[in-house]
Structure formats: C-alpha cells, structure tokens
Amino acid sequence: MKNIRFDFTCSRQVPLYAHLCNQYLNYDALNISIGCDGQQDFGQHSYFIEAQGEQTQLEQLADAIAADFLISAWLIDSGIKVIDEPQGGKTLLPYSQSGSSPAIAPFCQQCYPLIGDNQSAKFGALDLACPCCKGETQLTPAQKALTLSDIKAMAQGLLTQGPLTLAAADDLQLSLTPFALPLGERPQLLICNPNTLNAHFCLNDAQVLALSSIEKPLICARPTQEHDKLSAPLYDICFAYSRVILVLAEVLRQKGIDWVYIQGQHNRPKLAWLDGAWAQIASKDLGSTQAQTKHFIAPEPLREKVSLHGYQAQWQAAKRSRSHQGELNVAVLAQSNEAAHAANTFAANAGADNTGVANGEIEHAGKPHASDTENHTIADAALFSALLNGKFTSHRQAKNAAVIYLSHTHASQIVTCDNKGDTELFFALPELPDNGYEIFHQLDSSPQKAVAQKFKSLFPDDYLKLLSLKLHGRRDNLQSLWAIAAILIGLNPQEETQSQEKLSDALMAAAMRYHGANAPRIDYPLTKGEAHRSLNWCKTLGTVLSFRIAGNDDPSQLAFAMQDSLADYLSNWLEHIDLNIGVYNVALAGNELTNETLCKRISLRLGKNFPLVVNRSLDLDGDNLAVGALYVKQRQLNTHD
User: Fold this and answer.
1) From residue 202, how far is each of 207, 219, 591 by CA, in Å?
2) Residue pLDDT, tens place only, 158-178
3) Are 514 and 556 in contact (CB under 8 A)?
4) By CB count within 10 A, which of 99, 256, 371, 417 is most buried?
C-alpha cells in the first residue's frame, strides 16, 4: 500500500481544479483526501489529491486524473509523489463562479468530444447536460433553441453572404475579411482549425498550450513571414470558447476555413507571457458579468475601500483575529456603478494610522495641473499590489523595492520604495509631441540635427510619412516611441502613415523576427528634471537613425536592439538605485508588458541581479491598481493619471 499525492500548482485560483478535486471525493475505489495549499493567499495555489492503495489501483486513478485535469493557462507545475501521511481532508474546496450560472466552464473533457466532434452522434447538441462542468446552464434560451441545421446555415451564410452577427452569442460578429476596426484595436481571429495553426502563425509551446487551455484566452501572435492573407503585424487569436462557437468553428473547419475575423463582446481574457509564466492584462476584458470577485487574505491596509478605474477593492478585518489580517475582495464595477465613478475616484475610508482620507470622503480627479508630472499614485499602487505576493504580512514591511510600470493607459514610471516604506518617483517617460512635424523639428533642433538631415535626404518617403504621423491619446509611453521609431527604420511600407498602434505592433513584430546573436546598442540617456529623471528621446531616436544611415538595412535587428538596449538600461538604472537605497525586489506591471521581446530581455538582464515580482493573482494593469491603492500612503490621491 502506498500513499500518493497528485499536485497541480497554479499561479492563481482555477475553479475547475477545485471542482474536480471535490468530485474525486466520490471516487469509491480508494480512500481519497483533497486540499489546496495557499487557497486564499496571493501567489501560488497548489491543488492536491491524495490516495492510498495498491499499484494497479493508483495507476488507474492516475490515468483518470490525467484525462480529467485539462490544461489551465495558470498551471505552472504538476507532479506525483509518494507521501508518508495524507495532509488533506474531506472538506469541499470553495471556488468562485462567474455570473449566476452553476457552470464551471462552457464545456469540458467529458462533453467536448460529444458536442464538438463532427463524428459524434451528439455533434451540435448544445443543450447536452454535462454532470462535470454543467456547461448547459450557461446557455440562454435562444442558444438552447439552436439546432445543428441552424448553425450549418449560419456557416453557409458567412461563406456566401459575408459578415455574420450571432444574435445568440452576444452579437459577436464574424467575417472572412478584416473589419474596419476602431482606432487602436488589434485585429482578432477565431481559430477554426487548430491543426493548421503553425502554418499561419509563429507560436511557441507555451502559447499553443494557453490557446488550448480551459480559459480560452486571447494570445498575441505574429503571422508567418510574407503571409498572403494576414497582412497586419500582430493578431490577437483564440480558440472556440463557448458551445455555440465550438460547433460553428467545427462546421467552418469542415468547409476548409482555418480562421475567421471576430469582433464584439466575447469577453476573452488577454494574457501576456512575463518572466516564465502567464499574467492577465485586465479583468475588465471579461466584462462585469463574467469577471469573478476575487477573495484573498491580506494585511491591514491604510484605507478600507477604494474605487479606481472601473474596479473596487475592499478590506474587512477578520473577526476575533489579532494578526491584523483580513479579507480583501476586488471586483470589476458594473457599468452603471462605473459611471458613478467616472471621475476615477478613491472612495477611501480612514484606516490604520489615520492616514486614510476621512470617512466617506470622495476626492474627484480634476484636470491635470503642473504638479501632476510628479504624481506617482498609480505606479505606487502597482508596486504595493505586486509586493502582496508573499513579500509582506504588514504594510510596514513594504520597503526596499522598486516597480517598473509600463502602460499606455497611465503614466509609465519607475518608482522606488526605501527602507522606511516611502516611495519616490525615479523616472517617468516624457510626453512626446503629437505630430510628426514637431517630432522632426525637435530632432532637427537638437544635437541630432546632422542625422535628422541625412535621414531626410536619404529616405525621403519615410521622412514624408513621419511628417504625416499623428499621435493621439497618451503619449508618455513606449507605444508612442515605438511608433515613431517604426517609421524611422522603414516599417511603414504602405502609402499612408499607419496608426500609432499598428506602427508599434510593426516594431514589436520585427523585433520578434530577429534571432541574431548580437545587436547594436541604442542610447536611452536620462535627463534630470527638477525632481525626477526622464528620457532624452531625441538622442534615442538619433541613435536609431545613425545606424540606419550607416547602412544597417535590417529593421528587425534595429527593432530588437531597441528592446534589448532598453532592458539593459533599466538594469543599469536599478543597479544605481540599489546602491542608494538597497533593492530586494523589482515589481513588474503595466499593459505594455504584452511586448514579448522586451519582457524576455527584462527577465534576462534584470533577472540576473534582482528577484522579479509579478502578482499573477491580480491583473498587470487593472484590479491590481485598486488593490494596491488600499496601501498607498498619500493622504489625498490624485487619480486622473
């Protein structure tokens, strides 16, 4: 007789795994115990099933578990080991669910082969009852009424009549040709034939596994070089994620369709690969009805409730506890509530040390003013939420750390935290001019004048495209810098100047194509303002131009060089900070971390010298900010940024 333990270590809660553990308590052949280490903590959750039995029985159990536990995007390790004594119990594991449906997932390992395989007698039976995932309970009456014939007619309509709107699936639109996208949106594709995925996209194993995972996320992918139909630099792609879409995709696959364009409220989570594992960008992608309220045990904050940028975080002291730990909940605000918080307010209650805003007082964010360039509330919040990942049990322990917060939604900054827990803005990306004329004028009026003039004479087409560039929205971010650089290195071959988002994607895609052993060094010199440092962007772009003028005609090498050199400069800056205040942890956050190459280079260059901290239980640029804001020290919080 042996005691065996099956472990599934995840970077955040996985409701299906908790549900499957509970189901295995009904496994009659063996004495089973279950549990979850780190259940309500930030950081890793390790679901486990323990069993005692003979070798043959345990092998049968292992086969059953292997079939049932579908891959999750949040799974970071799994294993089987012999144990002396069981640590688990017979208590059911709690798990959060989205919406009012008891379903754990739209489909699972038991019902997927029946509903989604065209060889199955049950193919297209959307309302098939599944005892495991209860996916049929997610269906609306309109979806339950759909027959296989209805779905085949939809597929035929898409092929013969053009774009299709699925009234029964949240008005999702499908098309064989690209949609006219709103400004700034990357095209999205539903993959109908996973078997041909590698013929169309350059993907690694982690990306393929994530696409296949139970979460069915959107993954940023680069099409194969010189693809005859996929002309955008990058796409967000996903596999079928609901019963209706699953059957429709299979019917389209039978008709020879590998992928279709999609647009609408599909509520797929967008993920980014960061320092060896996946992280979610923003829970708001899921919509307020699909996103789950997250529950954690957390140390006492400085304020008990915060509403910020569409999220609400709340902390409540644990009853009869002297440990200063309590329950922290965070959720996406419903649209109606979000309108009430349109000014992005902190609704903050006085907490420990009376440093919170007075009870019930709400501070409205006003218009930007001169001192706002020093405002680092958002980056502070990103830092504290990251450090909750096992780094402190009291807010007073949040110290000797730094955060690299890179975002195109808020100010991109590096903030430090000293040995007293006080934060200081070390670096902020500058606001770039909003048009190409002014960009060239500033280059031409700087020490980069000579290379700017040579660029104008050697590459007149690209010079004209630069002049017609218009940057909209925030411009103190890498996206704006990448967009300008993309034109300078010749990544805008079209007649008209592309949008900044498409140009930025073109630069990132070019960097992903580069597989050389070395690359030029691009300068990212610091400028010292009155309080914090910024970037001499003219010098950075001047360096890029100088390499192109000198004959470097490989834009992928220059695009890679920009990412690699920035990571190297970030590492040097952090080493400088370390000498001054001592840095024990470097937190990473922000929605610009979808940049695959930059993230790899940051892991490589910074990861050698500093522990990198990513709180994967929270978003990179979403609910993490509301949670971290509970711990931000400022008495009054300007939050327009």
Assistant:
1) 10, 12, 22
2) 999 989 998 877 789 999 999
3) yes
4) 417
